[in-house]
Amino acid sequence: MNDLETKRERIVEFIRKKVKEAKADGIVIGLSGGIDSALVAKLCVDALNGHEVLALVMPTKFTPKEDKNDAIEFAKSLGIEWKIRELDEIVDVLDQTVGVLLSKLSKGNMTTRLRMIFLYAFANQFNYLVAGTSDKSENFLGYFTKWGDGAVDFEPIIHLTKTEVRELAKFLEIPNRIVNKPSSPRLWKDHNAEKELGVSYKKLDKLLDLNKKTKHKRRVPSSLEEN
Questions:
Q1: Could you give the count of Cα atoms lying within 13 Å of 47 in the half-sphere of its Cβ?
Q2: Do 183 and 34 touch, CB atoms closer than 8 A?
Q3: Does the pLDDT value for residue 226 go beyond 70?
Q4: For the chain, how long is the longest CA-to-CA vector?
C-alpha cells in the first residue's frame, strides 16, 4: 500500500468514526468548485454511502461560472445530492440592514458566515455533520473566517498541506481543472488566496515540511491531528 492510499484510508476511517460517534445520519459540505472542498467531498463519499452526503453550492456574483459548473458536475460525478443556494440577494439585504459602509473584507466575511448558516440549517434539519474543508497551510496562517468556514463539526484534511491536498486529489482522480485551479475564496472581484496571503503555497509548504511537529491548531471541535 502506498503512502497516498494510507492517507486516504486514515481519513476515511476518521470520517466514519466521527459520524458514528455523533450518531449522525450523514454529512453536509459546502462545495465551491475548488480543490479542498472537492477532496473532502470525495473522501466523505468513500467513507459513507453517496446518499448520506449532501453538497451545497452557494455562489455569489464573484463566483466564476466555471467554479459553479465544476461544483455541480463534480457532485453529479460522485452521485451525491446537491442544492444551489444563490446568496447575492441575502448579502445585499444584510449589507443594507447593517447600515454602515462595509469594506470588502467585512462583506466577504459576512458572506462566508452566511454559508455557515445554510450548512447548519441543513445539518440540523437532517441530523448531519458539517464537514470542514480547511487545509494545514491555510490553517497555519489563520486564513479562515471565524464563525464562517471556521465553524464546522470536524476537519478531515486540516493535517494536510496544500501540496499534499493536490497530491491526494490527483491520486483520487479528481478532475485536473479542479486540482490545478488557483485557490481563492472568491469573496470579491479577482480575489486570489496567494496574493492576499503574500506567499505562495509552494513556499509556505516547504516551511511547514521543515517542521513536521508544528501544532498550530485552530479551535475546532475535531480534527484528525487530535486523534
A1: 25
A2: yes
A3: no
A4: 58
User: How many structural domains is the chain composed of?
Assistant: 1
Determine the straight-line distance between the first and last CA of the chain, rounded to whole angstroms.
Answer: 22
38 vs 11: CA distance, rounded Å: 14
- Claim: this prediction has a pTM higher than 0.85: yes
For residue 4, the tally of other CB atoms under 10 A from its CB is 15
Q: The domain that contains 167 carries what CATH number? A: 3.40.50.620
Calculate Rg over the CA atoms of the chain: 17
Contact of 24 with 127, CB cutoff 8 Å: yes
* Full domain range(s) for residue 38: 3-226
Across-strand partners of 57? 84
Rounded distance between C-alpha atoms, residue 163 and residue 88, angstroms: 32
Whether 217 contacts 205, CB under 8 Å: no
Q: pLDDT of 175-201, one tens digit each?
A: 999 999 887 777 767 776 767 667 667
Residue linked to cell 455541480: 72
pLDDT, one tens digit per residue, over 10-38 is: 999 999 999 999 999 999 999 999 999 99
